Amino acid sequence: FKSTTHIPLKMKEEIIIAGFGGQGVLSMGKILAYSGLMDDKEVSWMPSYGPEQRGGTANVTVILSDEKISSPVLDSYDVVIALNQQSLDKFAPKVKPGGILIFDTDGIHKRPTRDDIKIYPIDAMNATLEIGNSKAYNMVVMGALLEAMPYKLPMENVIKGLKKSLPERHHKLIPLNEKAIEKGREILNK
After folding, report:
1. What is the pTM of this model?
2. Distance (Å, whole) CA 129 – CA 148
């Protein structure tokens, strides 16, 4: 007798987003974390940035899981997003085999060469020009992340995460952010 009981796979995504301060790295992480909470996941959000913040390096580690998270400190990641060469050099080697690397091609002179991971180069800055608002840069990147991740966050939870992390005076920008997220998803599917 064979059991036909389906045992659901446990979900855990360990993600780092890294770039220069002012690129919306920490905001992306916060929106991702809030979106995970809205989807009833266990969440860890751990920012790290230099004293300069804007213009200095910044990164944020986000863990989304079905189970309790034992530590927010990681040595390797399921998904790495690198928004500048310095971040790419530092974190590309830390993508777990079979993992995902997304990087913005703007300003990258040395591309990753690993063949044991999925690599997605995106031109997020050019996409913001197509949308007509460079402030939507991080949401274009967020769209690419949401499309690439095996765990699919429901869009309504991402919007709730946006509302939770944006001050109410900026809620009028949510439709623009939604458009930018969709643009990021499109870029990844090209």
Report:
1. 0.89
2. 22
